[in-house]
């Protein structure tokens, strides 16, 4: 299954192949709509497109994507701009992003769509404790699911007349927002905060390094040749030929 996950994630991260995965119809259900003095709150859900690609890789709770839409009751211009906010590590609910981000954007006439992260809050597997994922493979499921779900939400926003659109996230959310932007075929604003192009350093050298069971992973790696022979080349491919220094190039460099 690990090989399938990595191969699928590589497909998800490529624009042309991505349309084959997320190009279908995934109906969004509006579960709740509440009107307040100046705002409208909408909560919705839909089956994650990732479930179609790799059936049963997520449990029942996790396979349902959920979001909260925060809109101004009256738009001040002909445009209806919406910013999609992806969760940082440990940001399980909507409240923090709604209070610190969505409410402030409302004063500028900008709506917000707050996405519930896979493996978080109502999507958290029953045997998972807090924000700590049970398996390394869950990271690939989380990333693949978020990219496909975000793509579905962007299409839904367009169909409902919202735009221009933006993607935003802090820390892990910023990294995921960057991934989502790469597969959206149209111009879109991207605001990643406190993030980078990879999350690897956080688990290897950063604050989450001590949360990883390195002893078990090391034992599995050396006990099963599949990890070394098949899985590692998929995650960390060898250096492409175009980047290798040939003997001819090396000789020319020494002569120069």
Automatic annotation (TrEMBL):
Gene3D superfamilies: alpha/beta hydrolase. Pfam families: ABHD18. This is Protein ABHD18. It comes from Paragonimus westermani.
């Amino acid at each position: 299954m690990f090989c399938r996950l990595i191969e699928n994630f590589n497909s998800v991260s490529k624009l042309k192949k991505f349309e084959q995965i997320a190009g279908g119809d995934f109906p969004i259900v509006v579960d709740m709509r509440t009107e307040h003095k100046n705002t409208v709150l909408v909560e919705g859900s839909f089956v994650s497109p990732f479930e179609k690609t790799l059936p049963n890789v997520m449990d029942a709770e996790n396979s349902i994507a959920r979001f909260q839409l925060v809109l101004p009751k009256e738009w001040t211009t002909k445009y209806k701009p919406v910013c999609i906010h992806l969760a940082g590590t440990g940001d399980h609910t909507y409240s923090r992003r709604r209070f610190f981000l969505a409410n402030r954007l409302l004063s500028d006439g900008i709506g917000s769509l707050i996405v519930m992260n896979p493996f978080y809050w109502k999507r958290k597997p029953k045997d998972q404790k807090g924000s700590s994922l049970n398996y390394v493979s869950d990271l690939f499921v989380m990333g693949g699911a978020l990219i496909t779900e975000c793509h579905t939400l962007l299409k839904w926003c367009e169909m409902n007349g919202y735009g221009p659109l933006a993607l935003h996230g802090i820390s892990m959310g910023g990294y995921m927002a960057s991934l989502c932007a790469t597969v959206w075929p149209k111009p879109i604003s991207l605001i990643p905060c406190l993030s980078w192009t990879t999350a690897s350093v956080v688990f290897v050298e950063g604050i989450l390094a001590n949360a990883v069971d390195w002893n078990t992973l090391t034992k599995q790696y050396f006990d099963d040749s599949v990890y070394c022979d098949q899985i590692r080349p998929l995650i960390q491919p060898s250096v492409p030929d175009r980047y290798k220094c040939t003997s001819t190039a090396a000789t020319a460099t020494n002569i120069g």
